[in-house]
Amino acid sequence: MQQSNVWGVGSALPVHLMEFLTVVALCHTVETRSAVDEEDVSFEATSPDEKALVEGAAKYGVVLSSTNPDPKVEGGRRLLLQRRPGQNAKAKDVNLITTEEYFVDATVDYDSNRKRMTVMVRHPDGTFHIHSKGAESKLLEVEACSRSTDEQRKKALERVTEFGISGLRTLVYATRQITRDEYHSLLQERRQAMKQFGEARVQALNASNERIESGLELLAVTGVEDTLQPGVNECLESLKVAGIKVWVLTGDKEETAVAVSQAAGHFSESMTLFRITGCKEFSEAARLVFNSLNEIKSEYDEVGYAAAQEELEENVLEDVRGGKMKSTKRRQKLGSLKVSASITKKRRKRKDSTGSELPDEEFGLVVDGESLQHVLHPSLRIAFLNLCMSVNTVLCCRLTPFQKAAVVKLVQVGLGESKRGAGPVIAAVGDGGNDVSMILQADVGIGIYGQEGREATRAADYAL
């Protein structure tokens, strides 16, 4: 990439770091808020991650000082960046501060399918750039970052995994500089797509986005700590004591989601985790589901399992003989015996060297969005639900909003069909726009006022 003075040549920081900080200060939807002290700038954002990253760039001297609409471009923004010398410096000598004006001509907002957001920006030196940030599952694809080598993508993925295991929320940044002609061509194509309607508009925007968000060069990987609020562990424990099963449905990557679940006490340190993740084929997901079920069954006494199954069979047979079951439901009920027996089977009591009983072994299940589309297939979803109900708790990661709602519906319909009377009452708790579908699907929707907007609270039955 051609370097220029906009990257802060002459600064105490390396050029590549200055380039990264500049992109961080440009690729977002953050708005500035005026402060009493002109040296201080505060930010407003619907995404706490974006706010934290922009604040981080400011800490190192690349300060987003102003955001205003661009009157010459529909939907455009005019951003002012100040470059202040020194980490954490508040330059009282205005001669040490340089101010640069950038024009964001288009913002391709984040969505759960593309898993990224992108801006098209004119830089003050007359160059034209595309800056993008998002999930590694999308930005590390060869088509997205064709200007980076396999080795660079490999190293980036290693950093993403490292940050995720530490419980950090990760983003990958990428960029490219293009010619004036290509920039205006892409911009015009996007504007024409936005003027269309219905399915034609969707297809045109998808094609435009694909052209804009391809051929990038990897820039950096970031990790933001999403600290747990005080009392989370105690809250989860009280819910468990009350007999409530707690599942976590999140858009975070697997490593981050597992680390946070462990920190929150959702997963215990001694818990055995079964993982149905990264399944690109139905057969692979099915194999993992049935292997996990068999492994759990092997942990139970055969006698205890047989006794539980026999008890259920007798109960159902009594219902059939007494005419309590309608003929149209007999096959369905008898066909669910294996599922019911597996859910209700008795755990084996283990003993230590002194003969004292040890606690039952705990199991957790981790499922990602890629695999979920397979396990929700009609031919596999009963076995998958069986597995979910055979473990202590479930963590679903990298889910889209639609998939979150689909998991809620799976439990509502699945357990409603396999149990007498009413099924379970499901409450969904969320604080962001990505949780709205889940909240609407649940029997009880609970929205939490937070830093990610009020979509969740507006859709909920209860707002906290």
What does it look like?
- Keywords: Signal.
- Residues 1-32 form the signal peptide.
- Pfam families: Cation_ATPase (PF13246).
- InterPro entries: ATPase_P-typ_cyto_dom_N, HAD-like_sf, HAD_sf.
- GO terms for molecular function: ATPase-coupled intramembrane lipid transporter activity; nucleotide binding.
- Strand 15, helix 17 and strand 16 form a beta-alpha-beta unit.
- Helix 1 (15-26) runs antiparallel to helix 2 (48-59) and helix 9 (282-297) packs parallel to helix 14 (381-390).
- The strands form four sheets. The chain has a seven-stranded antiparallel β-sheet with strand order 3-4-5-6-7-8-9, sandwiched between helices. Strands 10-13-12-11 form a four-stranded parallel β-sheet, with helices on both faces. Strands 14-15-16 form a three-stranded parallel β-sheet.
- Residues 1-10 and 325-359 have low confidence and may be disordered.
- 42% of the residues lie in helices and 20% in strands.
- The chain is an alpha/beta fold and 464 residues long.
- The protein contains 17 helices and 16 strands.
- The chain has three domains: 5-225, Calcium-transporting ATPase, cytoplasmic domain N; 232-300 and 362-463, 3-Layer(aba) Sandwich (Rossmann fold), CATH 3.40.50.1000; 301-347.
Order of strands in the sheet with the most strands?
Answer: 3-4-5-6-7-8-9
Stretches with pLDDT under 50, minimum 5 residues: 1-10, 325-359
Major sheet attributes: 7 strands, antiparallel
Q: What is the residue-mean pLDDT, rounded to a whole number?
A: 85
How many domains comprise the coordinates?
A: 3
Q: Look up the CATH topology of the largest domain.
A: Calcium-transporting ATPase, cytoplasmic domain N
Shape: globular
CATH class of the largest domain: Alpha Beta
The CATH superfamily of the largest domain is known as: Calcium-transporting ATPase, cytoplasmic domain N
Structural class: alpha/beta
- The radius of gyration computed from the alpha-carbon positions, rounded to a whole number of angstroms, is 27 Å
- Range of helix content: 40-55%
How much β-strand is present in the residues?
15-25%
